Each structure stands twice: as C-alpha cells, then as structure tokens.
Amino acid sequence: MQKFHRLRHQLQPSMTVNQMIVLISDGKPATINFLLHLTKQMDEFDFVIILSKFDSIGLTGSNITRLFYDYCHSSVETYKKVIYSLNDTDSLNHILRYLGIVHTV
Length: 105
Known about the structure:
Elements: E1 4-6, H1 17-24, H2 29-39, H3 44-57, H4 62-71, H5 76-84, H6 89-99, E2 101-103
C-alpha cells in the first residue's frame, strides 16, 4: 500500500473557497471538478467545514475522490455521513488506513 505524507492545517481563513479547493485538491483537475460539483450540492458553510475536515486529517488530492468512489461507492449521502463521522477516532483511523495516509508533523 502506498503511503501518502502531507502536512495538515494548510487552509487559511483569508482564502477564498476556490483557493481552498485548489489547495486541498493538490491541483488535480479531477479532484477540483469533483469538489466544484460537490459545492452545488450543499451550502457554502457546510462545504468549507468539509474542506476543513479534509485539511485537518491530511486528506487531499485524489484521496478525496477515492473516498467518494471506492469507500462510499459514489453515494453523496454516504460520503457526507463518512465525512461527518471523522470526529470519531476509530472511524478516522479506519479511513486513513484504507487510503494509506500517514501524518507528518
């Protein structure tokens, strides 16, 4: 399994939503398109909360879309539930192991 190392907490309060999308997507066009599509399915505040959750756990780039397609089987409702469950340590650790993400300090 490939391990992904990424610093967390890269989003800044002064950033626009589009800047956050580009940063959290690691500039990957497929992830940018996915996140732009996701913005149309929820209000901006909830979307920024989701981006903040991604940033706090180091979930970026293609792992964002992998979580949706592979782990959540392309279900937006399941995706939202999984993202909101990231406050639970066991769920978070399971998802990070599934995606092969390790944190760096």
